[in-house]
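Quick one - inputs below.
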Amino acid sequence: MRNHRINLLPHIDWLLVFIYIILICFGWMNIYAASSSENHQEILDFSTRYGKQIIWMGLSVVIAIFLLFIESSFYEKFAAYIYLACMLLLAGLFLVGKNINGATSWYAIGSFSIQPTEFAKTGTVLALARLLNERQFSFKPFINKVKTFVIITVPAILITLQPDPGSALVYVSFILLFYREGLHSNILIIGTLAIVLFVTTLVFGYVYVIAGACIITAIILWYISKVRKKILRFVWPKIIGILTIVSGYIYSVYFLFHYVFQQRHRDRFNILLGLSNDTSDIGYNTYQSIKTIASGGFWGKGYLQGDRTQGKFVPEQDTDYIFSTIGEEWGFWGSALVVILFMSFILRILFLAENQKSKFSRIYGYGVACVFFFHVLINVAMVIGLFPTIGIPLPFFSYGGSSLWGFTMLLFIFIKLDAAKKYEL
Amino acid sequence: MKKRSLLFPLLVIITGFIFVARLFFLQIVHHDSNEISLSGSAIKRIYTYPERGFVYDRNGKLLVANEQTYDVKVIPNEVKAFDTIEFCSLLKIDKKYLITKLDRARNYSPWLPSVFLSQLSKEDYAYLQEKIHKYKGFSIQRKSLRKYPHKSAANILGYINEVNEYLAKKNPYYEQGELVGTQGIEKEYEDILRGTKGVSYKLRNRLNKVIGPYKEGIYDTLPQPGEDISLTIDLDLQAYGELLMSNKRGGIVAIEPNTGEILALVTAPSYDPNLMVGRERSKNSVMLFNDSINKPMLDRGLQAAYAPGSPFKLVEGLIGLQENVITPNTGFYCHHGYRYGNKATNFMGCHCGITGRAIDLRLGIAKSCNSYFSNVYKLLLEKYDTSQESLTHWAEHLRSFGLGDFLGYDLPIGTKGFIPSADYYDKVYPRKTWRYTTTISNAIGQGEIVTTPIQLANMIAAIANRGYYFTPHVLKKINGNPIDIEKFTTKKQTTIDAKNFEPVIEGMFDVYQNGTAKHVQIKDIDICGKTGTVQNYIRKNGVKYELADHSIFVAFAPKDNPKIALAIFVENGGFGSTIAAPIASLMIEKYLKGTSTSLKWWEDRIINTSLEAEYKKQLSIQLLEKSQN
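Output:
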């Protein structure tokens, strides 16, 4: 295949590219709506956010084309180095990083800042693909579990220390990838259960949660014995043991939270879980965001006609809360369409990933889907008031060069890998 | 492996479904079709308030007007350095006032306007208006206040108040701090008087800065001015009634029988309506509302329920005729009273003084014979098989006169009074063995029955009309056009036939000819009336304190084609003939002739009669009781 001028174009998955283009263009229109003001009507005014975003978009196209021209085997060969480079960039922040809004997450180059967090995702997915692609890799040996864990924990810790815990949460999403690649489902179940119990204990208090756990167990037992007609005699010790462990876990969560944590830690969790009535600050964001979306109705108020958007009522509306602009100006049909577009986009990536011949490409594709899914899930759920406030961007919509480039890289490396399978081998 | 690859797509689809459902819930189920109210925080409403309507009396005399005053307001953060000496001399204030007021305004809010100087005189306003542009941060706000050229009729006119949080929540038209009628006709006809405020919608950003009109002003409206109303009240009669009632407690209600229009609604003591306006308003209202001894805010014409006393005998007689238990010629003997049982106490005394001959209905009314009406009551309560059934019929007749009912007049306050029912007595006497003897006090308008002065006046209007009445009301015209409200133009028929009224009216006529009101006859006017004297005492801890009787009088005139019907109630005024009867004659003459000259001596006497000493005695008894407890 080398030195053969092979035409790449027919092998590219144009559907993904098409959705990508629609999303970034529509995203830009909404950034314009959310950030324009009466005084700046010039579209190519580079002192404004929407003007800058045009530059970022132009540069992402350049990056995308550049990535398509790199040899696909490069990614597999250099995955570890790319990962290391990303980790060094993250670590370097502690030396020369620039603090914006309380987090040291940026490198400042002149008037221009870059956020390595956004690129670390790509590096991590590549590293994971590389590791899991090793011959006869299995999650069974303990050492493999540790290796995988280290790969995702290092960036997560570095990002948490910036501190930017919201962005660090993305690394949790890879559990879906591990499950796909053979991680025992018990770990997924126990992990989910641990999170659910942790959150519910903080919200409802340990007495209720322990009582609830017992009741649910009782219902399951009743179901098994009466409906499924199984004899339970021999599993009693197991059940009592599990209940004891669960109760112990619940109580220790309670104890840790109330007696070991300091108040500032508790505050952070309380705000995260919506337990604190901080309406002036974070509660205010969610309240305004929900009102803004609800005011859109079915057809929306029309582009640039959203009075709440134009009045700039929702804080961070061109970044984390960009979805509320869509909700107000484009209404139900517009915002539902965006949700459907994103979901189709992720399903398309999953579909392509499943069809990869190379395991590396499949794992990479799955990782990409994990990252996009997690971002859309957390961001949209936060804006429509289903999740507590966690500040992470909506891919392709939120204003910001680093995140746009990061997502573009993540996507186009996959498009390249996917295209390559069709003419390589 | 295949199964495992299904989890992720499934999660994606479920998430998409939840998101779309949530958006559907927010944007379609929860969407408020009234866009303006929903986006309230982005849109600022700016109101223009119309002038409130004027109020006139039935003859076109102005009762309520508006007065423009000017407040100087200040927004502390917008104040720039200025010539304080000139400013102080313009406003006639000293520098100390300026500094303290500015500090106070800043403490309240540096960004919001506070009142700097309220109610500027017109001259000061004229000078200031030309120079206000030099003083950045200061502005003049025009304010409209209610003004009352006369001191009368405060109880009818009512007052306006600032809208409180509760009303603002209940009624979306109002916002906190706006003005709303809270009592009297200001409340009853609020919608007519206030007009409709104009509104313009401005778009603003999160810093509250207005950034332009909302949707080019398509939702903006102009204010609709309030409409003027005329009342049925005759200002002269009202003021005269208030004068006659000075230093007394009680009420006068005068009604035009053939329309139901209320000519005068006097309550005493009352207050000057101007007290409820202006700078001293809050101080005055506290003083008025906290006066629990004189209760000037209580409208005794509408809200005070008393035993009706002898005037009640009029309906008693009418019911007797209607139920055919008596004829106009039926005669009863009076033996200085009426014995209804064997015990010594089972005796109702009578002061009619006619012995040795039978008393008929006309004479019974003229002389207010207790025995006569006790006999009628006995016959009425024994007419049907049971006392219960008989009393039910009796009460039904009474209700047809509007007794024991709010009547439906157009003022926002009132009391129902009380007409006992058979159920009521069954509860009081659980063995249900009660008879006419048990409730004999009803025969002469005492006992359980209580009525308000307006109910009595309405009852007299029905008698004057020989059998019907119109719902009493105070509204006559809106913007000069006579009102046509079905409620006020519908005849309300009583259960008594027209022919039965004549003997009763003749009896009332005799009251003036040779009865208890003979001394206050008026030449050329045939007045029909009835005195009442209600015994009155406080009984507590077994001790009975005798108080002066309540003085009552009801009347209408002229006898044929009546023009005025009225009820007068003077608390602790003594005999009906000494205070209430002269007031009735004076009022009737005043209304029918325009002046009242024929009873000059009585006029002076009534005006100068003060019952304060009696009220003080009453108060001291009440205080005594309190200290004993």
